[in-house]
């Protein structure tokens, strides 16, 4: 083979991309005749191919293009209805792309998550949407790079190097505190449960900052059991500890449980004590009294997560993108003006 021919045979798609001033992913779309590339960009890439003598190896491309048309979704808890709504948003977008979702539950443990991530990789998924288990370290990013596997973070983030879709949790806490403070509440508790992760930290921080901004004590944070069935029993201990006139809940699961527990104590939610949930899942409008809650739009976050993953699969060289949606306060019947009739004292 002549020397010149050998040189041409070694021309890569990256060489073409650099000459045309585009990303390798864009050059790849051109050689695969994708309609996603504009006419001018396509012309530049084709000119670069001709100038460099690039030869498209269709056999190798076919092997590289083999896809499962499946994406993995890793969540930490399937009992929380929030994740069902998140999944509905993910599936709607993935289905329109002609793909399917493989859903797995990490149980919020890093060890189980690692096993499931490897299994999803073994099944050849084209990418993964990950709600990271508490304790996940940023070092997982290098593993994903080694696997060449597109991953999008959802709800919880572990690294700025990966795409992320979530909500402004701190702003949501400000909305909840401001709503209750405007109703005259000063003894406001924050009921939490579960392990610590980025969403937990942001809500805790948001609660503290919002309370201090209103001149209120910010240390009324009470942990309730992780098991949903045990949450109602925590209502009594909560009132023995701090006697709040209002309670903000880490999520709607806690709010539903405390709603039952408060009723068992003979307290009327929305009259004797105010209750505010977080996430605004469908059940918030079903329980009685209807639950005031901060909407984080889980369906929309799911849709955003899926779109980010599809973009990442199509163009692996895109810079990391974060989509953080604003929250919205939905006022219903579980929050009302501060009650004085039960002798529930105000915190100064």
The DSSP helix count reads 13
Strand order of the largest sheet: 2-1-3-4-5-11
Round the Cα radius of gyration to an integer and report it. 26 Å
Describe the largest sheet. Answer: 6 strands, parallel
Task: Assign the CATH architecture of the largest domain.
Answer: 3-Layer(aba) Sandwich
CATH level 1 name of the largest domain = Alpha Beta
CATH superfamily of the largest domain: Response regulator
What is the structural class?
alpha/beta
Whole-Å distance between the termini?
88 Å
Number of beta strands: 12
CATH-assigned fold name of the largest domain: Rossmann fold
The 3D shape can be described as: elongated
Q: Mean pLDDT, as a whole number?
A: 89
Pfam family, one: LacI
Organism: Neorhizobium turbinariae
Keywords: DNA-binding, Transcription, Transcription regulation
Domain HTH lacI-type: 11-65
Indicate the topology:
Blueprint: H1 3-9, H2 13-20, H3 24-31, H4 39-52, H5 58-65, E1 70-75, H6 81-96, E2 100-105, H7 110-122, E3 127-130, H8 140-147, E4 151-154, E5 163-167, H9 169-182, E6 188-192, H10 198-213, E7 221-223, H11 234-242, E8 246-249, H12 252-264, E9 274-279, E10 292-295, H13 298-314, E11 322-325, E12 328-330
Parallel strand pairs: 1-2, 1-3, 3-4, 4-5, 5-11, 6-7, 6-8, 8-9, 9-10
Antiparallel strand pairs: 10-12
Report what the structure shows.
The chain has about 350 residues and is an alpha/beta fold. The chain folds into 3 domains: about 5-65, lambda repressor-like DNA-binding domains (434 Repressor (Amino-terminal Domain), Orthogonal Bundle); about 70-165 and about 300-325, Response regulator (Rossmann fold, 3-Layer(aba) Sandwich), CATH 3.40.50.2300; about 170-295, Rossmann fold (3-Layer(aba) Sandwich). It has 13 helices and 12 strands. It has helices at about 5-10, 15-20, 25-30, 40-50, 60-65, 80-95, 110-120, 140-145, 170-180, 200-215, 235-240, 250-265, 300-315; strands at about 70-75, 100-105, 125-130, 150-155, 165, 190, 220-225, 245-250, 275-280, 290-295, 320-325, 330. The strands form 2 sheets. The chain has a 6-stranded parallel sheet with strand order 2-1-3-4-5-11, with helices on both faces. Strands 7-6-8-9-10-12 form a 6-stranded mixed sheet, with helices on both faces. α2 (about 15-20) packs across α3 and α6 (about 80-95) packs parallel to α13. The radius of gyration is 26 Å and the shape is elongated. The relative contact order is 0.13. Residues about 1-10 and about 340-348 have low confidence and may be disordered.
